[in-house]
Amino acid sequence: MSEIVDCAVAGETKVETPEGSMTIKSCAGKAIPVLTRTPDSAILFRMMRDVRKLADEHPVLRITLETGVSFRVAPEQL
User: Fold this and answer.
1) Which of 12, 15, 52, 61 can bridge 34 by disulfide, Cβ–Cβ 3.0-4.6 Å?
2) Which residues of 14-37 are buried (b: 16+ CB within 10 A; e: fewer)?
């Protein structure tokens, strides 16, 4: 089952691909497999499609989870 999710993250955000770690901005305009975790905690690659630049400059917030993992998102995504 394919799931389509719209989200925006900072261009410097890294994703894991079969070619290694890449920034989101380097994936723009490509369809590329990225490492993901499914709702049942399985880890697998899924295709990230329609990666595109939305803005040159935009306010970005850093969210840090209790685990210490952090990511950056636009304020309207909260």
Assistant:
1) 15
2) ebebeeeebebebbeeeebebeee
Q: Rounded CA gap, 8 and 22, in Å?
A: 16
What amino acid is encoded at 21 in this protein? Answer: S
For the record, the structure tokens of 76 come out as 């309207």
Closest Cα partner for 71 from 19, 30, 11, 13? 13
**Chain segment 34-70, per-residue pLDDT in tens:** 999 988 999 999 998 888 877 777 788 889 999 999 8
CA 25 to chain centre: 10
